[in-house]
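Co-fold these.
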Amino acid sequence: MVKRENKKKLNANFQKPLILLIVIIILTILQPSVFLTIDNFKGIMLSISIYGIMVCGTIFPILLGGIDLSVGATAAVSGACVVLTIIRFNYSTTGVILGILVGLAVGVGTGVIHGMIVANFKVPAFLITLATQNIIYGIAQLLTNNQVISCMKPKLFTFLGGGRLLGVPFSIYILIIIVITSYFVLNHTRLGRNIYAVGGNSEASDLSGINSKKIQLIAYAISGFTAALAGIVLASMNQQAIAKAAQGYENDVLTAIVVGGTSLMGGEGSLLGAVWGALLVGMIGNGLRLMGIPSTYHGVVKGIVIIIAVSADAYTRYKNSGLSKGKSTKRFARRANVENN
Amino acid sequence: MEAEKLLVMQNIQKSFNDVQVLKSVDLDINVGEVHALMGENGAGKSTLIKILTGVYPKDGGKIIYLGKEREINSRKDAANLGIGVIYQDFSLIPTLSVVQNIMLGKEKNKFGFLESKKMEQHVINLIKEYGFDINPHAIVETLSIAKRQTVEILKALCEESSLIIMDEPTASLSAKESESLFEIINRLRDKGVSILYISHRLEEVFRLADRLTVLRDGRKEAVVEKGEINPPDVIRLMIGKQLSEATASNALKKSTNEVVLKLENLCKKGLFNNVSFEVHKGEILGIGGLVGAGRTEVLRCIYGADPYDSGNIVFEGEPLPNVVNKTIQKGFGLIPEDRRNQGFVPLLSIEKNIVLTNFDKTSKNGVMNAKKEKKLGQEAVKDLDIRPNNPLIPVGNLSGGNQQKAVLGKWLCRDLKVLLIDEPTAGIDIGAKDEIYKIIENLAKDGVAVILVSSDLQELLRVSTRIVVMRKGKVFKEFASGRITQEDILMAASGIQEKEA
Amino acid sequence: MRQEKIRRLVSIALLLVLVIVFGTTSEYFFTTTNILTLLRECSVVGIISVGVSFIIITAGIDLSTGAIVGFTAMICANLLYYTNMPAQMIIVIALLIGTLAGYLNGILVTKLRLPDFIATLSTQFLFRGLALICAIRTSGVITNKVIDNRGILVMGGSISGLYLVTIVFIIVAVLGQIILKKTQLGVYTYATGANRKSAELSGIDTDKVKRSVFTITGFCCGIAAIFLMAKLGSVTPDTGTGLEFEVIAAVVVGGCAFSGGRGDIFGSVIGALFMAILSNGILKYNLPTATQLIVKGSVIVIMVVFDSLYNGYMEKKIREKSKELEELSGGEA
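Predicted complex below.
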């Protein structure tokens, strides 16, 4: 039984790169001259970098069995904060540094508020973050007065999202740093251990002396932080702040994490899986674009991808629990059975 | 003389994963009698009930109901035959009214609309017929627990049940509420309804039941008329006489070591009252009693998982803080009752579960030390002989015994002073049980003060060096010296004084 | 019952506070025209909230209602553009599409075992995307579909001042309340939300209940789509965006708790009125539209937290009460 499990795990380890490879091959065959070019891959990486940064933080609340749907709005508001601060400080270096600090603080602050509400009031996280998504989005509109605010200098600011180092866009370095940090936190720190423990069984964690409320607070704060960082990089990349800047990004983030094998029930999933999911989603989006399929179709594709990914997860769970057949009364009986054993 | 048989179960057998839980059980119930089903924990009572109500399929045997052999494959089959169950954890819908709850699933419709008046009348008639005192329009969540139970009984009656199964119905009732339940039961019997009454409480059984069936170890031990037997004999039947005299007794002695932990008049409203005892270094204090006597609650309060209302907990001469993290720092550990939900994180590996209580040893400034973690995991697997001996396997995939060893592993590498253990071997096979006992005994030898709560009398006798019996939230009796048998404990737990025996 | 009654009073009090604030600060508020406009404005949200109330009472959620409305409207606009179908036919088709879309949600939730919010979030993308696709003319340009069918436009009209949509809203609400309180499905809806296990134990097929409530919601979205088309006179791919949010806000203000088993249609009607007056007031005071988002979001957060606290408090009180009774009876002798 152990052997079979190891084998299964091995298969799962191979599965992900394999799927990625297949997608690359298919896209190469379909678009031989365009897809497999360095420029195109840079483009893919660039488009992934923003929501890739978000993925690294948003996975924290999801590992706890929660969710954060406000990341797109948070990114927009922190982008607006940075740009507005820079303009107020007359495009000075102080302005840039102060702006970034303000932007990140806003992100962490919203995260802390989410964490406090979710941990203390036993309310569904998706609903709270959906509501705050609207609130934050509204604030972003107020801040920008619903207009595009350009900010093309100083260089320190524009370099974040638009600059290049050794020919590679700087935002990709930021992405890599965030991925490594997040991976380290999740796999090699006490906090990471606590996240998996609370997500897997919060009662047992509490009895082991882990403060699960505090862990929730931190997880949402991290999610807010990465959302804000992504927003700042995005504002720098576009050299402007706009309320709609990152609208809908939370969907890409969610898709990437779910496709990457993280369970929405919490306690299960890995950062590398989520990053893989981000690559896959980015590549499929890129492929669709290259094939001349207008972006109008992307929503449909995303919807279907999420349905397939989540239902695959939910269905295997359901099947493994032995509850898959029969009428509800019989199911109840079997469920009682499973729970008892 | 020969009464009409309502239900006859013959030679019922059932196994789970190669463990035979029911070896051969017979049960027969007459029309209009209260029949008590008795037995120790693990004797097979609840499995038998689950077979009767269609939750589990039976492996062998016959069920004859009203003279015909029947197959009961689902809860619905049982309900159709007229077997109703009063669940311990109430299966009512809190936000619906009494009438709606009673008629749930059997609504009367006319042109697609509910015939509220007719259903109401039906329920009112039912209430009148049996003389209950309940407002049919009340919303269930506003009712007291006793009233909710009445609604459950009405629900069963509404299904025209001729047999109602009650599983520990007085567990969460006050004395007065229990009285009115007994009245109801007597009234039901007068109306010709049979009742299968499952309870650990001997005094209730002797007040209510006409006949008793005693199960032991998956077999029917005896069926007796109430008049033919007295409570101590029932206890003897439940334990099995030969066993109780031969092996299941143990010499107790009060430890002379220093007192580590002292409880002074600990109270928590509605759960336990004025609980006081002392625990010495290197001692295993067993706490016996029936389910619901307040034992688990006392443990959780000591550990800091729940607050208490009044009283003191003194640890090494100082008051003990009521916070989990602080008690752990002081050297406390808890093996909780509900292993799966409270003991471990099923998706995480053995190693990572063990680390959960040992971050102070395996991390520095919040960064984990992989080597130390690995060492901890390997040591635990080796010392506790967890199988398979791979510390990277998720605990959820282990067998019950090995899961429990992993939970023990969370504490063993710590500098333990007091270990609180709650039902450590529930659902664990015999081999693993022995190993767990050995681990506990070794801990005590190393000077750890152990408090062991258990409903398994053999276990209690085998492991403890001193035994306290709790009953209805109070310390009822302490056995500190001399030899003691299972009988002694059961009698104390049931509130029978020795003179009667 | 008291718990529900107090909660109902809270909803009514919230509504009254708004009415008093806006009524005393604006002379215009209590004019017949304004009241009729208010009723019209609350109706589309109200019609959908009737369905969503059912879902939330089963402890579920529907985030796709806005997208279903948009998709349905877009299909109808296309049919009107490309064919000569009579208005009646279009109405029937709209209802059918809405119902099927709702049924699809139900299938995803019960057959594929998706959590409600994930299932309806994905169908939100799906229907919004489909609406976009349908909006593309052969040239690839996305254009607004102007509705010029008089049969449809007539639905936006009024009878002696009272708009048709308001009349339909009242009918739908009354029907919804009857279904909820007077039929088996209604009782099962409460049972499924309050205690799913117990409901199954009583022989209720809770999956079927779930599918039914999603289908009802889809049907309501179909109705809403017709009136939205008639009112706006054109359909864009964005039609109905954010509607789901306003509906959820209305339903929670009205007292349907997310934990399930509580609330009714009457409450949601109050909630819909509340939201309409709020939007109306924000417009009247010339506040930026962004304020609407902030206010609506805050209303949801506050009401959800309030319900969680309130229900927890009531539960505690009941428990304490039964404990006191126990002590009066003396406990152990």
